[in-house]
């Protein structure tokens, strides 16, 4: 079984891209603890590359007919690990105001909520589809974190930390709306399947 799993990973470009996205997270975190502009720029480039693989791995899996259970398992985990890691480091470094921290907390809580719903509903073979609004939320969230990663290392005259926090707040508001939509859908399925599992 381990050999079959390793073969599935090594022979699937989409799975390799997803694993690369996970592997680069510690590097981004380490760079954000280095007090130098080059480190912030490098972290930004790696973060943008990781975001690009989020789209690319899914696209390749569909077009190459390489959609796999492993890929479906790893892809959302990779996304959430990247987002949570960046938000936690930005908070730890003191680069977010109280409002930014609360926005980040809302995003993290929503990710946990949706993950729990997906896991529960999977028992009933119910797939929670990503809405268009959720895709917009993801796009704004990715942009917000990219701007915040660069922060003070960006070009002079651009208030990137302020812009990044404003975008993060917008992402958090979209997060609350989409989180409510997912929760409502989850409750509907729970009711249809006779309550909880305890």
The poorly predicted ranges are none
Structural domains: how many: 2
Beta content comes to under 5%
How many strands?
0
| Main sheet: strands, sense, barrel | none
Note down, in words, how this protein is organized.
- This protein is globular.
- The protein folds into 2 domains: 1-93; 95-198, no CATH class.
- The two termini are 32 Å apart.
- It has helices at 2-10, 13-23, 25-32, 37-63, 69-92, 98-122, 132-150, 160-192.
- With 198 residues, the protein is an all-alpha fold.
- Helix 3 packs antiparallel against helix 4, helix 3 runs parallel beside helix 5 (69-92) and helix 5 (69-92) packs across helix 7 (132-150).
Keywords:
single chain; 198 residues; mainly alpha; 2 domains; 79% helix
Give a short summary of the structure:
By secondary structure, the protein is mainly alpha-helical. 79% of the residues lie in helices and 0% in strands.
Topology (SSEs and partners):
Elements lengths: L1 H9 L2 H11 L1 H8 L4 H27 L5 H24 L5 H25 L9 H19 L9 H33 L6
Helix pairs in contact: 2-4, 2-5, 3-4, 3-5, 4-5, 4-7, 5-6, 5-7, 6-8, 7-8
């Amino acid at each position: 079984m381990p050999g079959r799993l390793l073969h599935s990973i090594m022979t699937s470009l989409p799975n390799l891209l997803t694993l690369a996205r996970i592997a680069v997270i510690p590097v981004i975190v380490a760079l954000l603890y280095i007090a130098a502009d080059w480190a912030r720029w490098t972290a930004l480039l790696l973060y943008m590359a990781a975001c690009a693989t989020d789209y690319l791995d899914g696209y390749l899996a569909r077009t190459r007919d390489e959609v796999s259970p492993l890929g479906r398992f790893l892809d959302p985990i990779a996304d959430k690990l990247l987002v949570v890691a960046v938000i936690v480091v930005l908070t730890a470094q003191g680069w977010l105001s109280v409002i930014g921290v609360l926005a980040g907390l809302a995003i993290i809580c929503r990710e946990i909520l949706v993950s729990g719903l997906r896991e529960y509903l999977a028992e009933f073979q119910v797939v929670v589809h990503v809405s268009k609004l959720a895709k917009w939320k993801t796009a704004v969230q990715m942009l917000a974190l990219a701007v915040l990663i660069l922060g003070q290392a960006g070009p002079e005259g651009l208030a990137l930390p302020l812009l990044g926090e404003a975008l993060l707040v917008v992402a958090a508001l979209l997060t609350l709306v989409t989180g409510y939509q997912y929760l409502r859908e989850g409750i509907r399925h729970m009711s249809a399947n006779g309550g909880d599992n305890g």
